[in-house]
């Protein structure tokens, strides 16, 4: 049964604990108030939430909320932070855990104030009782208090380490060389302890444990566990503190060496990180009587604040310091991110700060982070960054473990080694002559001597003041004695005078008593009369007011009842007339609505019939125009084909003529060559001239034919382009007409949809709809007429171009004939010239004849081939025109069929819309009739209710008889009178003995009271008042508006005034307040004064 709680505790320890994160928000300082900064941070201590407004001052929706373990607002005191955060951790340190507390945040947000605190003004309190003290002094004070109350043997060692510009310095080093750098190494030593084999409380098969420990089995069933240490800082001084009185001196000594400087954001800005370590050794005794030493360690870290160099005004050295600070804090943030995201590599070694805090972040240490923030809007970005890092650090998981306990022998061994080392150092230091005293003891001795000298001087001054006071008191005593003798003589004289005056006083007193008695009787009578008169007057006024009010109320009620009756009759008549008028108006309205609906029916029927008629006409015109298009195109194509056939026939005729001419020339040439050569020179010359003429004519004819071919190609291509343009225009016009028809159908659908919503505006919109429909019809007719005009224009252009080409062909033929005539003339000239060369030609005649024959054959073949190609080309052109005609006819037929189908569908849809619209109108008419009937019924019901109200519900004010009537009031008619003076004096004489006794008693009482008062005043003047204690001061831990010096730097910097974000530290002169003791002169004897 005992193993179950141990196993549950073990599982809980194996899971570990998250780092505790606390947020503290400081109040506004003077610089932020001057800058008119507003608050963007809200702290909820109960819900442990911090809300930050990221938007403007008016924007309350943009907020970021963070949840932490504890949240402290601006009004939180130092003692509250200490009790909530440090007290639980301090108990764990005493139990033997390693714990770490460090403050993180922007510069000037109160990290040093939280960790160290400040001294109260004028040093009213001691350092351990100061309400402004921070965590470090309170922790050390409570450590000594707790350990002393427990009654155990203990020892406390402290060390103070500074990390400045990534260099380590010992702030408690006794030497004057502050700049001595320390070195940091990994600890090669291992701490060896013995642990029993207990599988119930410790699972040795766990891989996490085997990664941290090394196990060795021994013969007696024990395990040797080697626990790895962290880092070793060579040369770091650990000072043993024996009592709490030494704590403040040590801390003040370390704080005096810490590097601080003034910036624009903080007058006492910490330029380095400080790590204050407290190691506690506590003695324990086991059940077997073995003495063990329990070790607990507490690290209190005051980090330097991250700062913006532009805002803090840091330059040169300060800028380098800020860079190193930001670099180390950035590494700390990366370590936190790596631990939260559980990355395989955590960059501990990139900064000495993270290397020292390695065990505190993700190790075996109980860690708490105090994140300090500013509430001002000026520091919004830095506040969000601090909260993001702090919120992320909540997810870091540590596994706190109790330090292994050392045996007494091991501890004594460590101490003996330390003593031997110190002896060696002492021997080396004492080799010189003279007395060797440590600097600390020498300073302490000098301090004691100076304090004793000051005390001696102060005591001597007090002795002189006492002697002066004694002489003054003796002189005062003699003066008082002389005055006392003079007073005794005066007292005897005054006693005689007093006896005589007492006689006269008795007589005057008796007379005074008589007069007072009479005046008292008169006064009592007067008071009684005054009371009776006032009562009578009040009664009269009340009764008259009540009576007049009652009668006026009756008069008003009568007038109101009469007025109500008249108003009731008038109201009933007016209401009946009003309802009758309403019935007539409703009847007129219903008749007008019926007429309006009839008009709606007729108008909308006409509208639909006209739209149908317009669509019919549109379809007929579209069909007519589209059917005329293929006819015109076919006529144009037929004309073109006829022209092409004519050209083919002309080409064939020219071919036959040329062949015939060539054959005739060939036959004539052969006959002439065979019959007569020389005698027939004339004929040969003629033949030669004819041949030349024929050749030239053939060449010109070939050129003309090529020109005609080019012109025909251009003409045919132009014709094809015109036909394609005609086809495209026709298709586009048909598409436009189709789109217009679709738009028209959509408009009719929208008219149908909006009819139910806009029935009361139909009369005004019908004219607009008629105009819109007419415009739509015109828009449909315009593209169709445009198509017809384009077709006519294209056909006219084709006809004109064809006529132009025919005319041009005729003109070319005429030109050809004229050129042939010119060739004849030229031929005759050439014949004449050929006669001159007859001799040369006769020799080459045979050769010429052969060449001529060859050329004629070649000419014949080329002419035949060219004519065949031309005819084939023309036939291809004719076939292409026929195909084009077929394509145009097909497109026109398809478009006409689509138009007819769409128009028929449109006509049917219009008929359907018309029928549905007429049905809707009939239903609307029925609804209006029903509404009219309901309205008449409601009017009748209202009339019935009104008559019921006027006849039954409205009632007259009936008198109840409870109104008071006029009546008479009874009052006293006689008044009290005072008794006569003689009678009053007789009554007084009857009471005279008692009166004299009362007078004597009153005089005795007065004398005794006067004597006691004089004694009290005399004693009050000469009595010594006790020293008054000052009222308790409510020591708030807010950042004081006066600005405070850090707690342990108070004595070295009295002239500095710390103000966050101040431009320059304000110099203040130290004013020592001296208290003057004023001793009042006593009138009592010296002995009486001393006794008092």
Automatic annotation (TrEMBL):
Protein keywords:
ATP-binding, Cell cycle, Cell division, Coiled coil, Cytoplasm, Cytoskeleton, Microtubule, Mitosis, Motor protein, Nucleotide-binding, Phosphoprotein
Basic and acidic residues: compositionally biased ranges: 1056-1073
Gene Ontology biological process terms from the UniProt entry? cell division; microtubule-based movement; mitotic centrosome separation; mitotic spindle assembly; regulation of mitotic centrosome separation; spindle elongation
Compartments, as annotated in UniProt:
Cytoplasm, Cytoskeleton, Spindle pole
What Gene Ontology terms describe where this protein resides (cellular component)? ciliary basal body; cytosol; mitotic spindle; nucleus; protein-containing complex; spindle microtubule; spindle pole
Which intervals of the chain are annotated as region Disordered?
A: 1047-1079
Q: Does the keyword Kinase apply?
A: no
User: Is Coiled coil one of the keywords UniProt gives this record?
Assistant: yes
Under the heading InterPro entries, the entry gives: KIF11-like, KIF11-like_kin_motor_dom, Kinesin-assoc_MT-bd_dom, Kinesin_motor_CS, Kinesin_motor_dom, Kinesin_motor_dom_sf, P-loop_NTPase
Annotated GO molecular function terms are:
ATP binding; microtubule binding; plus-end-directed microtubule motor activity; protein kinase binding
Write down a Pfam family by its short name: Microtub_bind
Main location (coarse class): cytoplasm
Record-listed ATP binding positions:
105-112
Under PANTHER family, the record lists: KINESIN-LIKE PROTEIN KIF11 (PTHR47970:SF26)
Q: Please give the family membership noted in the entry.
A: Belongs to the TRAFAC class myosin-kinesin ATPase superfamily. Kinesin family. KIN-5/BimC subfamily.
Protein's UniProt name? Kinesin family member 11
Gene name in the database record: KIF11
